[in-house]
Amino acid sequence: xxxxxxxxxxxxxxxxxxxxxxxxxxxxxxxxxxxxxxxxxxxxxxxxxxxxxxxxxxxxxxxxxxxxxxxxxxxxxxxxxxxxxxxxxxxxxxxxxxxxxxxxxxxxxxxxxxxxxxxxxxxxxxxxxxxxxxxxxxxxxxxxxxxxxxxxxxxxxxxxxxxxxxxxxxxxxxxxxxxxxxxxxxxxxxxxxxxxxxxxxxxxxxxxxxxxxxxxxxxxxxxxxxxxxxxxxxxxxxxxxxxxxxxxxxxxxxxxxxxxxxxxxxxxxxxxxxxxxxxxxxxxxxxxxxxxxxxxxxxxxxxxxxxxxxxxxxxxxxxxxxxxxxxxxxxxxxxxxxxxxxxxxxxxxxxxxxxxxxxxxxxxxxxxxxxxxxxxxxxxxxxxxxxxxxxxxxxxxxxxxxxxxxxxxxxxxxxxxxxxxxxxxxxxxxxxxxxxxxxxxxxxxxxxxxx
Length: 451
Hints:
Layout lengths: L4 E3 L3 E3 L2 H6 L5 H34 L4 H29 L1 H19 L5 H29 L5 H26 L6 H9 L16 H6 L3 H19 L26 H25 L2 H7 L4 H12 L1 H12 L5 H20 L4 H27 L7 H29 L2 H22 L9
Antiparallel strand pairs: 1-2
Helix pairs in contact: 2-4, 2-5, 2-6, 2-7, 2-11, 3-4, 3-5, 3-16, 4-5, 4-7, 5-6, 5-16, 6-7, 6-12, 6-13, 6-15, 10-16, 10-17, 11-12, 12-15, 13-15, 14-15, 14-17, 16-17
């Protein structure tokens, strides 16, 4: 087992990256996946509760489609602030502490959604839900990127996303059963979103990121965590191979604020990732958040709309599983570019039909290709930044994407009302095509690189 190293008798360090990289996948890793998979599950469940509830609100509260756009905009404003501020807080106080805080925030906020009495109260609670959801998502991906060996990092981040995406069809099934129960049925969907509080039964298995401690110069704390992890892995897998010798600078790397994301190598990374997240958000939520309401507004019954959504979303975990399986077989930028292009084509075909079986088939395909993209984008976004900027940088890019949808949701609403149903899908397809081109021409390669 390794211990704290000393270089030229001037600098202590714990060699966290190499020590974690040489660990075989073991029970320790699956305990992390369980705890963070629960966060992912209810994080994504909460993201999609509003799209399921929207048709019921239109029917029972008598509100227009434009009002749903306003509520959605409030959610995305919360996501922008949560991702941006939550990522920075995680770099300051630690991954685990920040994650605990934001899981609590989005779970309690979801419960408050169930008690909403008018549109302003619902907008307030959706803002808080979005704040907690986005912050938790960014921190989860940073933790996974720092904990898993670089050779399988993308695979397991995508696998965790698959666990989370199982929450999408399950949430849709819950919605399909409880919403028709009465004018109050939609409230139970938000109660379901609060079940994420069970995460707190699993946090004892979650160590703080040793790389976060090491980056702050807290080598003894990092070393103690690494020793505990290594002892558990050795007990299960036997003696561990020696870790590679580290390349360590003589100074502790300090976070210099968001200005550091706009300098040197970080500048290109921030611009490219932010642009991809902006177009992904328009394309992803343009489809996922609006399809139920658009179908209902074009004559499909609420019950059929809900069940179409269930059948579409079965493709989500399958797409994430496929994304996990291919994540280390090809460069992630090419997986992302190809899946974005296929999503653009399938989305356009979806918008050109009202034949029930075709709605189901093309919606299913969109969910598969979209989730291959998204599951790999979560891994990809956390990889290019150095440790001291990982949560802040990925949080800013993710947050700008969510911020853009404040206007994107209003834009989709305008297109739907003024230009028609098919025009929405032309817009969505164009966004996915933009993602593909950005990644092809400007996306960095990241697979198997130590970060």
